[in-house]
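User: Run a structure prediction on this.
Assistant: Running it now.
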Amino acid sequence: MYDLSSKFNSFYKSCVVLPEDIQNELHRKKDLNLQRLKDGLKEYNDENGTSYSIVESCIQGSIAMSTVVQNEKNDYDIDVAIIFDKSNLGSKGSQSTRNMIANALRRKTKQFNAEPEVKTSCVRIKYADGYHIDFAIYRRHYDYISNSWIYEHAGSDWTERTPKGLKEWFKIQNDFSKGKLRKVVRLSKMFCKSRNSWKNMPSGLLQTVLCDEKLQNSYSRIDELFYYTMKEIVNRLESSTSVIAPVDNGRDLTPRNSDIQKMNNWKNRLKSKLEDLNVLFEEDCTKNDALQAWYGFFNHAFWDEEKEDATDYAFKGSTKIVHPFADTEQFIDDLFPVKKQYSCKISCTVTGNGWRPKPISEILKLLKNFLPFNFEIKCIMEYTDCPKPYQVFWKVKNVGPEAERRNQVRGQIFEKGNSIIEHTNFFGNHYIEGYIVKNNICVAQERIYIPIGRRGKNEEF
């Protein structure tokens, strides 16, 4: 793998890790709104003749684990646990307790654009600039048999859960990895937040649990550590999208269909962008190829600003090394539910430069596994056992730094009938996918790889 670890470390330190002043601001907002809640609760008690009081509070989530990243700007999620004595709440249910907390906050947040929102697992207040604070509510009682406090969370019902459990678990795991786990989690979150168009991506908690589960701790280089951990996460999600909490009696973190969809979105987008990094393993990969590849992965201006000697760049006379491009790729899961009930087969023939049409497998054997430029490729959906009627959709994805430089990544999905014709224009391990869609469900798909070699001195045709 091309060693770009020095640039990667610079990217991590300057563009991923949240600056200390912003971290301090998040803690200040937490303290400010916790005090607002306490003041509102006192006012609520005075009006209603009650005596509810918060006996404990603690920070939770990504701030507690210090995994908040710069890509979450204007979307910072501040999680705060507030804890009551069970005897103080009496028979008050979880829903009515959340309503009471919202009532108390409403009294002291009238300057906010939106009123406190009662959600299933918390009460949320939103800042106009995108910040939001989630107050998760707990009650506790002392268990003399175990000689410890028992905590219950106010969700759809009161359920046993430890407010500090995840924070303590993460500290142990991160210390064991000598800090590598936190780095990988932060980088994963940078990726998941890298495109505004990417909706329904997994929460930081889900990413954290899988990063820990699949952490490739044997790698010392940060780029390799991250790359190989993400590869293992894709493999894991190919076999199962279910995630179990490492604390709280192993509760299911993906119980809803929407949770499964988020995991599939992560898998598909991560898998595709990892394929774009294949150039890093080519013998003739240049530094500029590597810079372009990581730019395509993270979609971050850092890589665009890394300038190298223009003589190392394929387009002579240009001083622009990394080229921004339109990330137009679509994923079949975003367009249709995927239930692979049938099979399909795509035939692919190649012709050009005096060659008669031949199956791509034969051409690749003759030409050392790469196609030359300016050849014609024809793909036909030759067979499917899916009964008619159905539709055939196609996706053409140009992979690699040259596609990004030329702003020709493509990857849109279109209905184009039973066949599609393309041409070999520039190097990269490209591919064409075909999909069978019946009753608005993708029921079969197949991929054909289209590896195109480089021009010039590295060409071996």
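DSSP finds 15 helices and 15 strands in the chain.
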